[in-house]
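Protocol step 6 of 9: fold each sequence in the batch and record its structure tokens directly after the sequence line. For illustration, a two-sequence batch is reproduced in full.

Sequence one:
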Amino acid sequence: MKYPIVKPFLPSIDAYKAQIDGIFERCWLTNNGQCLQEFERQLADYLGVNNLLLVANGTLALQIAFAALNIKGKALTTPFTFAATASALKFACIEPEFIDIDPDTYNIDIEQATSKQLSEASALVGVHVFGNPCEVEAIDRKAKEYDLKVIYDAAHAFASDINGKTVLEHGDVATLSLHATKLFHSVEGGAIIFKHKADYLKAKQLINFGFNSDFYPELVGINAKMSEMHAAMGLCLLEHLPYITQKRRTLVAHYQECLSLPFEQGLLSFQKWHAEGNNNGAYMPVVLKNEQQLLQVQAKLLEQGIQTRRYFYPSLSTVPAYGMQGSTPHGNELSLRILCLPMFTDLTLDGVEQICSSLISAIQTSC
């Protein structure tokens, strides 16, 4: 039996074909078509948010967010995230300054930021790593004290909450990735949730070349629109969301149960989740003793058809292209020791048990 690291959940081909048939009949393939409008409305309703804007992908979502909020100069962010977080900043000519993480939650530790770093920045870009909510209240306090805009890269945080309310309501902006590897997807896609209507309206212009209602390029914009074909996939998957989220939470709980003994023995560790949140089942990371052990375990699992991935390696503060600004020992160390196990909706509980059995054996033989 082979276990890929991810496997996209798909609707029935007949359901998707019905959406595509409608697109063919209307012959409206992009530029705010019927599927896009309906998907945007239904997704905002499902998430319980206002000012939601769909875009072509999650990286463009970040870039549009920075432009809508007029972020310039320097932004504080985490080294422990996917490359897109830092590359989107650099692409927008914003310098990332890396702040270290909490080694237990894996999220940015805003208390590690110095007064100098905070006073020189224009924004703070937090990441809800693996869907685990950041300490949003602490970040809000620092943002108010130093007049910072707050952008959350919430690429992993679909169906993530704090006290039963979506984490996406925090910050001036939160961005989602709807890539095929995510918990919920539209094949390729992204979404931006704005706190303020004026920022949303500006972004709506920015994703369509900066045109105003008279089709005059009032702003310097870009083409970041989602197509009808991608919106159609999102629409088809929305009805499956209760099943997807429940199943993935069950899988995470079963993983943790099966790995409870090596956890108690100190052979591996888990991410500490936000006290007022529920694990959304986006990923299944484990932290091993050191990088050498990780590489040995990864190789042994692959021999058995079990694919794993080093999310996130390397630590972005060590990458010359991103400027290497900031001291981040916790983030650097975690990036060497963390491995994500297979996580996808079609994974069975028996599959989890087989993966865990193989993982435990690989750890024991690598010690």
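Sequence two, same batch, same settings:
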Amino acid sequence: MAVRMAQYTIDVENLDVMVAFWSAALGYEVEQGDDGSAKLWPPEAPSAAAPTIWLQGSGTAKQGKNRLHLDLVADTDPQAEVRRLVGLGARHVDVGQTGTERFTVLADPEGNEFCVLDEPPTR
């Protein structure tokens, strides 16, 4: 038996800012709860390739480097996607890159690190 990733949960301080960023970044639909949280749904039915995102209101700011993070893949030009994400509110961050990586490290508006891969992972 094995498990698959179904959902990625992010603790957020400002739910509205993070809903706006992540729904625009991923093209996901928003289902906002009345409990200070929101679920972001892929445009199609969830599958192993498209987990849901749960934005969980925490009321506190992020502290330290993420122990887990998202790796995103662009449909077309990865650097164009990086520019689009920066335009949405992401920023470049240095987590010790050497400059030879095949990905770009960004942080969302609350500082949660994520990567845009130059190409999809392969075996």
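Proceed to step 7 once all outputs are recorded. Observation for sequence two: The domain at 7-117 is CATH 3.10.180.10 (2,3-Dihydroxybiphenyl 1,2-Dioxygenase; domain 1).
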